[in-house]
Amino acid sequence: MIYGRIANGYRPGGPNLQTGVGAGNLTFAPDKLWSYEVGVKQTLSERGFVNLDAYDIEWTDIQQVHNIGGVNQLVNAGNARVDGVEGTLSYRLFPRLSVIATAAYTDARLTTPAPLLGLSKAGAPLPLTPTFSSALMANYSFDLTDSVHGMLNVAVRQIGERNSGFAGGAGFNWGSNYKLAAYNVVDVTMTLSSKAGWQISPYIKNVFDVRGEVTAGTATNQFVPSAPVPVVLSQPRTIGIVIGKSF
Q1: How far apart are CA 23 and CA 68, in angstroms?
Q2: What Å distances lie between residue 172 and 23, 126, 165, 191, 220, CA to CA?
Q3: Which residues contact 193 (CB under 8 A, 6 or more apart)?
Q4: Do 242 and 203 form a contact (C-beta atoms < 8 A)?
Q5: pTM
Q6: How far apart are CA 34 and CA 60, in angstroms?
Q7: What torsion, rounded to 10 degrees, do the Cα atoms 83, 65, 170, 223 define?
Q8: Is residue 25 a contact partner of residue 15, using CB atoms and an 8 Å limit?
Q9: 219 three-class SS
Q10: Which of 3, 71, 78, 197 is positioned for an S-S bond with 114, CB 3.0–4.6 A?
Q11: In the beta sheet, which residues pair with residue 178?
Q12: CB 214 within 8 A of CB 235
């Protein structure tokens, strides 16, 4: 199947809280978005499928939080464009073993200056958006007994480098930019299902206890450049089990 899609959306504008200290912005305008996408979905005999798509997103009058006179307000901070391609491959290598691979490339950037965020030029990458990301999963099915069926899933996720804020920005909420490092996470889940309706699923998330950098707050660095940057880390290694019963 070959397809195309055009979508449009918006977030409403509104008033800002006023404290009487400093001018501030009385109101903020809606931000709007147009999305254009084309793609193909192709089956591979009876063994799997391939999905590919490319998209272009036009984002105008982006709503961002900005501190004015000690009060956080919503402001309109220029326009942005997000271009990307995504792909998914699912393939059954053997009767009981299948693999799924996904990959994405994203180019997300401001297309206009954003003076309220301290950005005098266009081209700043959008925060928290990795240029590359991917995942690889393997599923293996087996029969533990005549009445208990099992499925073992191993997944590896790769999250690429990202900016915590707008590079070169000087807004109070963003401060200086912090480069979030790329990291990989491995998850393992096994599901045992019985004919009686019971399901037991032990799991290990983040098997190697990777301390991935998810977000960072750099507002303090605007006043104390040498201050340490607080970084939110990914979920540590977590071991658990889920038990369910179908009625």
Answers
A1: 8
A2: 16, 17, 11, 47, 8
A3: 148, 149, 150, 151, 199
A4: yes
A5: 0.83
A6: 9
A7: -140
A8: no
A9: helix
A10: 78
A11: none
A12: no
Place of tokens 């206890």: 209
Alpha-carbon gap, residue 178 to 9, rounded angstroms:
31
Query: What is the residue-level pLDDT of the chain in tens, covering all 247 positions?
Result: 999 999 999 999 999 877 666 567 789 999 999 999 999 999 998 899 999 999 999 999 999 887 776 778 888 888 999 999 999 999 999 999 999 999 999 999 999 998 877 788 888 898 889 999 999 999 999 999 999 999 999 999 999 999 888 766 554 444 567 889 999 999 999 999 999 999 999 999 999 999 999 988 877 776 777 788 889 999 999 999 999 999 8
Q: Could you tell me how many helices (H) and strands (E) the chain has, helices first?
A: 0, 18
Residue with tokens 């889940």: 189
